[in-house]
Specification:
The chain has helices spanning 10-22, 49-55. It is 33% helix and 0% strand. It is built from two helices and no strands. The model has no long low-confidence stretch (mean pLDDT 88).
């Protein structure tokens, strides 16, 4: 979300929002520590066109 600012927490907030929209918990898919300024969406969650459409508002 903010690649030049690792201290930002915007990614963490957006991660929660994306998880709610796509109805998943990232801890069930990834075991590594997530960065606070990035959002991780597993490819498994993007299995149809409607999933892509639902995350479109989060993409800059």
């Amino acid at each position: 979300m903010e690649p030049g600012n690792p201290d930002s927490i915007i990614g963490k907030e957006k991660q929660r929002e994306v998880q709610e929209v796509l109805d998943f918990d990232i801890r069930n898919y990834r075991s590594h520590l997530l960065k606070r300024h990035e959002v991780d969406i597993p490819f498994e969650m993007l299995d149809c066109l409607s999933a892509f459409a639902s995350i479109q508002p989060f993409i800059n």
